[in-house]
Write a structure and sequence with these properties.
This protein has a single domain, classed as Porin (Beta Barrel), CATH 2.40.160.40. It is about 10% helix and about 50% strand. The chain is mainly beta. Strand 13 and strand 14 form a beta hairpin. It has a twelve-stranded antiparallel β-barrel with strand order 3-4-5-6-7-10-11-12-14-17-18-19. A two-stranded antiparallel sheet has the order 1-2.
């Protein structure tokens, strides 16, 4: 509703002229959304205090096509997004990520996007940095509420970065080093936004880390060997409920489920393949997004993610006890 000089927009109805029952329902709906948001944020903070480990993600859950508001049809034809993140990983490792993303809408239905990422890790006396992956996706909207995406992840490293000539664990690799197929579907109905996706490796990396490669170095005693690493695919399911907070702010609580489709494998020191027990299974993460519109063309987004449920084993080095991300977007 827009009011100016005592007048309202054509077709709008002043709140004072609404029946009491309608006002009651509006207030009740706002109250329900506020309670839901506050409860979610409280749960996020409580879980963050537990310092649990989870948030395993091969990359697709941070793609714009599978984030909240993915089916928004009001965005301009072009968007450029720049983001930076910080997270806590296993083995007292700090992780810092960066990305640059471009999204192009072609008419009302079709579009494509591309994203390039980098990653730095620091901990246990080691610091590494490298380019990670390029993501390329095509997407199409149909029946107004659906968005289908087909894409690929292209690695910029082989997943076998070295230190002093010795292979590092996956926890210090800037990329999984795999070519992946990505398929997904986003759907929105009555304020609820859903997304489902599959990320399936088509190749494997060249990682050669075996614990005996560092004799006497206790820093690597707890790292999972990943020589000849074979990683299974992941399935994603996300639900989100955006809540407007004025004309410039939007708060979006989200629940993210990632299921790892099988136990990963590595080749042991005897040259035999060995399953990594407990690497198959479900990870559940809580996310919260805060969007702030600076003006019609510029926006900021702050997001935080923490785990609620984790897999027993996460050999790919993607474990995070928390992730905080800040993104700037330019729309034109």
């Amino acid at each position: 509703m827009n009011m100016e000089h005592g007048r309202t927009e054509k077709g709008a109805q002043p709140l004072g002229s609404l029946p009491l029952s309608s006002l009651y329902h509006i207030q009740l709906n706002c109250m329900k959304k506020s309670i839901l948001l506050l409860s979610f944020m409280f749960a996020v903070l409580q879980v963050a205090d537990l310092n649990a480990q989870g948030c395993s993600d091969a990359g697709f859950c941070t793609l714009n096509n599978f984030k909240p508001n993915a089916i928004d049809t009001t965005t301009p034809a072009n968007q450029v997004r720049i983001g930076a993140s910080v997270g806590g990983a296993d083995h007292s490792i700090s992780v810092f990520g960066n990305y640059l993303e471009y999204d192009r809408r072609l008419g009302k239905r079709f579009g494509f996007d591309a994203k390039i990422t980098s990653l730095a890790q620091s901990g246990n006396g080691f610091s590494t940095f490298g380019l990670s992956d390029v993501y390329a996706n095509l997407h199409v909207k149909f029946r107004e509420k659906f968005k289908l995406s087909v894409g690929a992840k292209i690695p910029l490293t082989d997943g076998n970065a070295l230190k002093n000539g010795l292979p590092l664990p996956m926890d210090y690799q800037s990329s999984l080093g795999t070519y992946d197929l990505i398929l997904g579907l986003a759907y929105g109905i009555k304020g609820l936004q859903l997304a489902a996706a599959l990320q399936q490796p088509l190749t494997q990396n060249d990682n050669a880390f075996l614990d005996p490669a560092y004799p006497g170095d206790v820093r690597f005693a707890q790292f999972q060997s990943t020589n000849g690493f074979e990683r299974k695919g992941d399935v994603l399911l996300r639900g989100a409920i955006p809540v407007s907070a004025g004309s410039q702010f939007k708060l979006t609580p989200s629940l993210l489920l990632i299921y790892h489709l099988g136990n990963d494998r590595f080749t042991n020191s005897l040259g035999k393949q060995q399953e990594i027990e407990g690497s198959q299974g479900l990870t559940i993460n809580a996310n919260a997004f805060v969007d702030y519109m600076l003006n019609q063309h510029n926006a900021l987004q702050l997001s935080i993610g923490v785990p609620l449920l984790v897999r027993e084993a996460r050999p790919d080095g993607l474990t995070r006890s928390f992730v905080i991300n800040l993104e700037y977007s330019l729309r034109f």
